[in-house]
Amino acid sequence: MASTSQFIGLAKSLPAPLQRFFARYPPAAILPENTPKTRYQEERPNPFRFYKHPVTGKWQDPVYSQRRQAELVKMARENGVEDLLPETRKGTEYKLAHRVEHGLRVKGTGVGQKVKGHIHERHMIAKMETRRKAMLDMPSLIKRWKRVRSKIDCLDRPREHVLLTTLTGGQIRLDQVPQINKKKRDGMTALARPVHSPCIFMYNNISDRLVKERLCTQNPASLS
């Protein structure tokens, strides 16, 4: 164990704020037993904590503010005497224990807090999940579309095709329409072509069965 002279030499090498602090609040670890307390220790046993006055019952602020506590802890850590300081929330040991328990929570970052955020930020997770599922289902969707594309292609060429629906076993039959007819009347040439009325197409449970309600073709002779 170090002698008293060594402690005195170490105390003289400390910065002035630490020397004044240890003179007012000498640590019990380096003092002999039955050493009387100083006047400062009798008034405030721990200068880093709030103190309840025994007479008035009111709470008093610490003798050293949080900023001054942090400065003392920093100087003591640099000189290797941090263990001699009273317990404080600015101590290295307390900060490490708090970080292990709560993680790297920083006010304003949202870590460990519920932040409202913008509307696009709140909906981002649900949208990305919907998009992910759609991308996973894309191969099967492409296959279903290729199976029904040839059946729907006739709608792009209404003058060449007419869709005559016969729901026989759930199948759709495509019949080729004759070429455009030319008919002379009173020395004039008239073009007769099939005319389609509006129809309704539905997908039942996103299946590849194209259901048609009605498609009518007028008599080409009535147009002449």
Reported for the largest beta sheet, the result is: 2 strands, antiparallel
* Spatial gap, N to C terminus: 123 Å
Quaternary organization:
single chain
Q: How many E-type strands?
A: 8
Strand content: 15-25%
Shape summary = elongated
Spatial strand sequence of the major β-sheet: 1-2
Unreliable stretches covering 5 or more consecutive residues: 159-185, 187-224
Would you write up a description of this structure?
- InterPro entries: Ribosomal_mL59, Ribosomal_mL59_dom.
- It holds the Pfam family Mitoc_mL59.
- This is Large ribosomal subunit protein mL59 domain-containing protein.
- The chain has 224 residues and is of the alpha+beta class.
- It has eight helices and eight strands, in the order H-H-H-E-E-H-H-H-H-H-E-E-E-E-E-E.
- The chain has a two-stranded antiparallel sheet. A two-stranded antiparallel ribbon has the order 3-4.
- Strand 7 and strand 8 form a beta hairpin.
- It starts with a helix and ends in a 12-residue tail after the last strand.
List the topology elements.
Blueprint: H1 4-12, H2 16-24, H3 39-43, E1 51-52, E2 59-60, H4 66-79, H5 92-102, H6 119-122, H7 124-136, H8 138-152, E3 161-168, E4 171-176, E5 181-185, E6 188-192, E7 201-203, E8 210-212
Antiparallel strand pairs: 1-2, 3-4, 5-6, 7-8
Organism: Fusarium oxysporum f. sp. conglutinans race 2 54008
InterPro entries: Ribosomal_mL59, Ribosomal_mL59_dom
Protein name: Large ribosomal subunit protein mL59 domain-containing protein
Descriptive key words:
Large ribosomal subunit protein mL59 domain-containing protein; two-stranded antiparallel ribbon; structural constituent of ribosome; 36% helix; 15% strand; 224 residues; Ribosomal_mL59_dom; alpha+beta; disordered C terminus; Ribosomal_mL59; 2 domains
